[in-house]
Amino acid sequence: MSTERTDVESSVPLFRISVERYHAMRDAGIVGEDDRVELLAGLLVPKMTKKPPHRLATGLARQAIEPTLPRPYYLDSQEPITLEDSEPEPDLVVVRGARRDYSDRHPGAPDVAMVVEIADESLDRNRGIKLSLYARAGIAVYWIVDLQDRVVEVHTDPDGDSYRSRVAFTVGDEAPLVIDGHEVARIAVRALLP
After folding, report:
1. CA–CA separation, 2 vs 187, rounded Å?
2. Which one of 104, 166, 184, 186 has the fewest beta carbons within 10 angstroms of its own beta carbon?
3. Which pLDDT score is estimated for 8?
């Protein structure tokens, strides 16, 4: 599954919680907005600190992707999506429908057409646990914008806890933006990188 390092000894049992319990903790004020955690595979995990290049790349990706989306899709940024045992907050997510369709719940896996994570110090997490979560949820397209190596990894064809296809696009390339099996645009990798 994930090769991400943890600070907990492997002999220490971990207590996993359900998405429902996480919501109850949030509703009761036990977990608040200022706590900077997300639920990943049933565990509360600290969110990564975002540095200026990460913030800039998120904005650039939003600026490049949003105008290309067909109706009825919209682009959300750093908002929760609800999966079976997780509630990650991807940097960008393409959601089916209109924003108002989700006034009483977060989008779930069937509502998500694509996820984009911007990776600098979070590269191991994005290639590890997050890739596994998105694949298991059946999210068809997962992009990792790798700021270190200046590439966009496009993962498609989820199979279990991984993806069958991974293609890396470099600065001179254009990555295909595929929504529900249809290429709707090609995005210049250069446009996504700070």
Report:
1. 29
2. 104
3. 52
With 0-12 / 13-18 / 19 or more C-beta atoms within 10 angstroms meaning exposed / middle / buried, residue 109 is middle
Beta strands in 49-99 (DSSP E): 73-76, 92-96
Which segments of the chain does DSSP mark as H helices, in order?
19-27, 52-65, 123-125, 131-136, 189-192
Q: What is the mean pLDDT of the chain?
A: 93
Residue 188 φ/ψ, nearest 5 degrees: -65, 125
Tokens of 146: 């790798």
Over the stretch 92-106, which tens digit does the pLDDT of each residue have? 999 999 999 999 999
Q: State pLDDT tens for residues 101-146.
A: 999 999 999 999 999 999 998 999 999 999 999 999 999 999 999 9
Structural tokens at position 172: 């001179």
Q: How far is CA 174 from CA 63, 71, 127, 170, 182, in A?
A: 15, 22, 21, 8, 16
Amino acid at 173: D
- Write out pLDDT tens, residues 169-179: 999 999 999 99
Q: CATH: 3.90.1570.10, 3.40.50.300, 3.90.1010.10, 3.30.420.40. Which one for 48-192? A: 3.90.1570.10
